[in-house]
Structure formats: structure tokens, C-alpha cells
Amino acid sequence: MIPILLKRTVHGVIVLWIVATFTFLLLRLAPGGPFDSERKLPPEVLANLEAKYHLDEPVLQQYARYLGGLPRGDFGPSYKYLDRNVAEIISETLPTSALLGGLALMFTILTAFPIGLLAAYYRGSLIDRWCLFVATLGISLPNFILGALLIWLVALELGWLQAGRWDDWRSVILPTVTLGAAPAAYLSALVRSTLIETLGEDFVRTARAKGLRESVVVVKHALAHSLIPTLTVMGPLAAALLTGSFVVEYVFAIPGMGRFFITAVTDRDYPLIMGVTLVYTAILVGANFIVDVLYGYVDPRIRAH
User: Which domain does 247 fall in, by range?
Assistant: First the structure.
């Protein structure tokens, strides 16, 4: 297992370097500059700004400066938020996005597995059809539409919860449900399909023939055996949720990293765009690394290889 994890670590570092390089090059090749606006700056002001942020240097020198700061967590200064660097902005906004993503991930797991298990166990019944309907609806409905509907119905019409901000538990529920609904629907459909296949295996019939309780047969034997395909999608799914959602944070006015990323794109804040992109990539690589570790505990055959 250790050689596999070392190999995954090397692959992760290479992925981070590739993403950092391509992001840097794509932003440099994009038309226009970071200080272009409707009101054109005087040439001397533009020259001073480019000198301040080292944009007057050759591209290779800028690239070397950028890569040299990454091991220290230095993503450079922000072009939009004066006297603040990208690392400070990320450190302030990432916990909010991670909290939202963690709550959405918890909602996804606590919702998807019971729905998928019920649908698989009562396959072809009314319960199964209702579970499939809910899953299909959750997959088909975009989160910005779901968020708007929840704001209108739950917050404005019924007045039960807050429609925005991020200050108490009443402001947390709606964005958590909005962000976790589609992943929960997709994961429940996956759990259902894999569990239906597993329930027909010989070892499940053998467990039932031994007289084990049905709950033990379904949960301990069938569901545990079905975790491998589920874990495969849990890595990128968890990474996507833990970094939050651009749209959800924008709709609910949550001061997270995704909302800053949207404003960074419109403001041409290149260092902030590159920093947020690299942080997202690092979280995705870390999530996949954790999934590789969990593979070894779920399936001992992986540890043997």
C-alpha cells in the first residue's frame, strides 16, 4: 500500500504543477490586460502598475517568480484588493467554503445512502419509484434554480429561514440543501444500482441461508461490498463540495472563496484566479488520495497489491 500512496503523491505534485503552468499561460494569453477598463489609464500610471506587480518582466521570469512562491504559499498580491495578498484572501474565505461544503457533504451522505438502500431493497415497488423520482428531480434541477425556489418558498413566503448571509444556523440550511441536493440524488442512484447487483450475488444468498438478520445481510454484507464504486465518485464529489460552489455562494451572498473567484474573473485579478484554481486542485488531489487509502480498508485485495 505504501508504494501506491507514494506513487499517488508524486502524481499529485505533477498535477499541481501542470495546473499551475496552464493557468499561468492561459491568463497571459488572454486578450487584454489586468488593468484594462472602460476608462483608459494614462501611460505613466499603467507603467507604474506593471512595474509594481512585475508585469514588465519577461514572461519566463514572471513564471519562475510565480512557481518560486508556491512552496511558501505565496500566490502574489491581489490586483483588485489593494494591500492584500492572495494567500490572505484564501485563508479568510476558504474556511467558509469548506464549512458549507462539509455540511453539504454530510447532507449528501445522510440522504443518499438511506434513499439508495430503500430503493434497492424495495426494487420495483412504489417506494422505489418515489426514490427514483426524487433522484431524477435532484439531478435534473440546477442548483441556481433550486436555490431561487427555496429562497422564494421557504424564506420569503413561509418566513422559516434566512435567504442570505452566513451568521447563524438559519442562514446555513438553505445553501446546504441547495449545494447537496444534486450530489445526493446522483449518489443515491449509484447506491441503488450497485446494491441491486450485489443483492443478487451468491454470498448474499449464503448469508441469508445462515439465518442472519436481514438488516445484517443488507448493511454489513451487501452495502459494504457495494462501497468500492461509491468511493470512486466520492473523491471528486467531496472535493467539489468542500470547496463550495460558485453559484450557491453568489446566490446566497456567502463570503466564500467561490464568490471571490467570480469577482476575480470579472476584475481580471490574475493572481487571485490562479491561487483559487490551485487550491481547488490541491483539495481534489487530496480527496482522491484519501479515497485511495480508504480503498485499502474496504477491499483488502488492494492492500495485497
Answer: 87-254
